[in-house]
Amino acid sequence: MAGVGPGAAVLVPTCWNEKDKSPLLEVTQGLQVKYQGRGDSDKDAASVRANHPIQPSLGLFYFEVTIKNKGRDGYIGIGLCTASTNTNRLPGWEKFSYGYHGDDGNAFSFSGTGTEYGPTYTTGDVIGCCVNYFDFTCFYTKNGTKLGIAFRDIDRKDEGKPVRLYPCVGLRTPHEEVEANFGQAPFVFDIESEWRDLRARARMVVDETPLPAGKWQHKLNQMVTSYLVHHGYADTARVLARDMNTTIDEPEETIAARQRIRDSVMSGNIEGAIELVGELFPTVFPDNPTLLFRLHCRRFIEMISDAAQETAGSADNRYSDDRLESILVYGQEVQAMFETTCNTAENRTLLKEAFGLLAYPNPQEGPMAHVLDPAKREPLAHDLNSAILGSLSLLSKSQLEHVVRQASTCLTTMLEHGMGKAAFLSIDQFME
Prior knowledge:
This protein is of the alpha+beta class.
């Protein structure tokens, strides 16, 4: 895929549009373009657009064009245009059109008169075109070498509406032939390094943005304290509260209890966690039957895992009859819980995966081994902790997590509104 930013999930140009071209061009396999006209004058120019416009939310978009044959005169133009640009003109000759031409190496935009830009190009050369929505510029490459910025201020508007640009290529004389690469094959130019450089620049902009004067630092310290308390790290939270003059707004005993429950889940002692919750926070499971089902399902998996480890070194590599019977009896209880109170597609998948482990003598080495992964305990411990906090009328997510979620939503909204700079940032960059 030619789009390299997080916005690359949107529709991106992937081929030439055979229904959006001059009749003087022949397009084959969506990528090869051959000139079929007489080429007597500029009136014989012909171009073709890509199948989709470039979305600013990509942040960066790059494609390459190989010159298969320069033809008679090499009047080839590679660049960008709008959906309404005349396809009987070369790129750059029309309004909101940009092109780098091979016969003279000039750059054209909004005019049939070019300006000096780069070297000429001919048969065998690979010309790349990169649209940069961080700086709103466009640059070209030749055989993997960057030629410098050709056009600036490409974020123009037409009658108040943003202009969406399409990759395009234009040919003008007989036997000219080119082939595009929209990411179907590796690029000659290292576009990933360009992406990394822009991402570093975006990070620097954020890092160098000063916070306004006020109580921000204390608020941040309080958020960190509440995060530690939220996840049960009582000792660390107390040290921070003492050193940073922050407060802990939850009784010590409930923090400690939540930590014990979390530790039980993370160690695989699901039965112990269920008992502690029932004893210390009795309203949690009646209000969250699906959560209780997930815990029982995980306990079922842990029972199979423990049994598999015990039998791995035995002579017949089989569960003992007593062990197998206890696993099956518990599995039937979980099955009954599913059928009576938790019959959803998601829970059905959980139960199916758990029972699937019994089909393998050594499930830890079989295709279902991922189900046994201890990392699967983490989201369960998190959700259980949130449910306990909810039962105490406390926030189910910490203030810091709310801020992170809000920041993520802001980035998504910025991308949806075509703010290309947001493509070079992610919350994960600041969580590392």
